[in-house]
Amino acid sequence: MSDRYLSFVNSPWGRRVAQAAGLPQPVPLLRHRSGQAALVNPVIVAGAGRLVEQVQRLFTATDTVAATPATLKAPSTVKVQGAVFDATGVVDVQQLDALYAFFHANARRLGPQSRVVVLGTAPEHCQAAPQSIAQRALEGLVRSLAKELHRAITVQLIYVAPGAEDALDSSLRFFLSRRSAYVSGQVVRLEKPVDGQVAVDWNAPFAGRRALVTGASRGIGLAIAQVLARDGAHVVCVDVPQARDALQQAASSVGGAALTLDITAADAAASLQDHISQHGAFDVVVHNAGITRDKTIAKMSEDAWRSVLAVNLQAPLQLSQALLDHQGVNPGGRIICVSSISGIAGNLGQSNYATSKAGVIGLVQALAPQAAAQQVTVNAVAPGFIETRMTAKIPLMIREAGRRMNSLSQGGQPIDVAETIAWLAHPASGGVNGQVVRVCGQSLLGA
Ligand SMILES: NC(=O)c1ccc[n+]([C@@H]2O[C@H](COP(=O)([O-])OP(=O)(O)OC[C@H]3O[C@@H](n4cnc5c(N)ncnc54)[C@H](O)[C@@H]3O)[C@@H](O)[C@H]2O)c1
């Protein structure tokens, strides 16, 4: 769906009107395109921790177009496209001053749409209280920078567990690229990979891998299928029998296969198992199918309650459990659910939907340790306002508020969710497990 206000404020006249009236001024986000450099460039790498070398190595090893980090101590007038601050060496509150000094000196050097990443050690992995307090404090800094740097600059915090240093590359490649355009203010924890170190072809990471995407005939599901296929996967697209034609079209457009299946059907798990016995287990499973039946609870029918919980929560749970119980996901595999910021913040008229999406977060947290024993990760994305048919149904004024109430002052696109899922699904992302990553432009809801 088109965002007319975004086009308006980016016209010469609209810009003047918005400035004069103090209205939000979103800028069209730059998103990754094939053939583009993998990472933004140049990037300042600063700080004194155990990860600086890892970060530097990433830039020299980048395969598509070489990136050149500039490690600068003094302020300069040269604009950069990103900054990485390694704060793993910060062991007490006083040492947080180094972050003030760095961002104070360099904030204005960050060009529009820059990517900023702060690296830390999660408080639970710190040995002493002063270190754990200082590391926890990084969250406040990162979330504030994400709100105040404007110009579509995104800022994230990655906590890297001791021993997980080598697992950093896939996350840095995502957060320092145009793929993460609509992800900001996020805190991600990296642990030792559940599946050890794997050799990766960064240009076609899913080559030879099989992916299953539910609700793939349109919207976010179609974008997920397209991105996974773009990166080499054979994608099995699932949708309800009523969507058969669109599903066939979607599957053939990505060179994949169509599987008509109502994921709430009593025999859905058995049908999937049949498919697996014929074609093999999956490496990536994305539970994307979802529905809304909005009403305040007093007006909500029992059917509206039950159907939303059945599609959005019970089906992903039953299918995931069946897949894990019967080796339907290969070692090194990934299960990714689609939650929602409604599941984090709650939403008026969405008690059924928010319950189901909060339950999805519970699913991720409950299944992640069990799946890890099979070298499989379980994570979720929680999209905010994404421009699809689902959000087109929202009444105009509420829709407009939903679009603007985030640090980027605009809705995201299905591709933003898809790129985030591709990062979580990546063979080198085995260190990300049990996490919920918001794709919401740092929405104010549930922040
Ligand atoms: N659009 C947003 O802003 C937004 C925000 C947060 C979360 N989400 C979530 O993202 C996911 C995709 O949303 P979308 O906006 O693309 O929705 P959409 O309505 O465009 O697509 C959902 C797809 O799921 C399919 N589906 C529904 N019930 C099914 C069933 N029982 N079995 C198999 N397939 C079924 C539908 O046929 C459809 O193709 C959903 O889980 C949704 O809750 C969307």
UniProtKB/TrEMBL annotation:
<dbReference type="InterPro" id="IPR057326">
    <property type="entry name" value="KR_dom"/>
</dbReference>
<feature type="domain" description="Ketoreductase">
    <location>
        <begin position="209"/>
        <end position="389"/>
    </location>
</feature>
<protein>
    <submittedName>
        <fullName>3-ketoacyl-ACP reductase</fullName>
        <ecNumber>1.1.1.100</ecNumber>
    </submittedName>
</protein>
<dbReference type="InterPro" id="IPR002347">
    <property type="entry name" value="SDR_fam"/>
</dbReference>
<dbReference type="Pfam" id="PF13561">
    <property type="entry name" value="adh_short_C2"/>
</dbReference>
<dbReference type="InterPro" id="IPR020904">
    <property type="entry name" value="Sc_DH/Rdtase_CS"/>
</dbReference>
<keyword id="KW-0560">Oxidoreductase</keyword>
<dbReference type="GO" id="GO:0004316">
    <property type="term" value="F:3-oxoacyl-[acyl-carrier-protein] reductase (NADPH) activity"/>
</dbReference>
<dbReference type="InterPro" id="IPR036291">
    <property type="entry name" value="NAD(P)-bd_dom_sf"/>
</dbReference>
<comment type="similarity">
    <text>Belongs to the short-chain dehydrogenases/reductases (SDR) family.</text>
</comment>
